[in-house]
């Protein structure tokens, strides 16, 4: 009986650990205008999700800046276009754009930023895209964000 209790406890700890891992992720941006990850999966059980953005390159953010922007896939192109119009000083995002679900700051080589956001409003049957809104980068720098479980 004791052994069974211990086994269940171990399983519970394992399950908790697995969920914790699904509630955050790290994406790296490079001087080659790429992200290290093209697909992110967030567990439905997460209250919040934390995205850590790193930039392993050396180039300054005015030249090879990267951010991480999350939106419905159907909104991404328009957000990207409006971000280009907003300009560098706004981090290439229209201020308080309601279509943006979450975003990091624009960073340059060697910098990092993180954003934590609620998954409460996100649906598993909706298509979400993450991308970099620096002008021209979305061509290569985008991926799929999925709610799973
Ligand atoms: Zn970029």
Question: How is the CATH topology named?
Answer: Immunoglobulin-like
Spatial order of the strands forming the largest sheet: 2-8-7-4-5
- Overall geometry: globular
CATH architecture level-2 label? Sandwich
As a percent range, the share of helical residues equals 25-40%
How many extended strands? 8
N-to-C terminal Cα separation, in Å?
A: 31 Å
Cofactors, ions, other ligands: zinc ion
| Proportion of strand residues | 25-35%
Rg, rounded, reads 18 Å
Report the structural category.
alpha/beta
Order of helices and strands: HEEEHEHEEEE
Poorly predicted runs are: 11-20
Number of helices: 3
Mean pLDDT: 90
CATH class: Mainly Beta
Oligomer: single chain
Q: Major beta sheet, specifics? A: 5 strands, mixed
What would you give as the CATH superfamily?
A: Cupredoxins -  blue copper proteins
**What is the count of structural domains?**
1
């Amino acid at each position: 009986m004791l052994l069974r209790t211990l086994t269940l406890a171990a399983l519970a700890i394992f399950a908790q650990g697995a969920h914790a891992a699904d509630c955050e992720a790290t994406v790296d941006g490079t001087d080659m205008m790429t992200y290290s990850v093209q697909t992110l999966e967030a567990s439905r059980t997460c209250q919040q999700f934390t995205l850590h953005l790193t930039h392993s390159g050396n180039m300054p953010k005015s030249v090879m800046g990267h951010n991480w922007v999350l939106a419905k896939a159907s909104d991404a192109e328009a957000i990207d276009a409006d971000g280009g119009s907003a300009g560098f000083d706004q981090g290439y995002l229209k201020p308080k754009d309601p279509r943006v679900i979450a975003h990091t700051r624009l960073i340059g080589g060697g910098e990092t930023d993180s954003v934590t956001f609620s998954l409460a409003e996100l649906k598993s049957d909706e298509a979400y895209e993450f991308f970099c809104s620096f002008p021209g980068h979305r061509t290569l720098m985008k991926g799929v964000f999925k709610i799973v479980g």
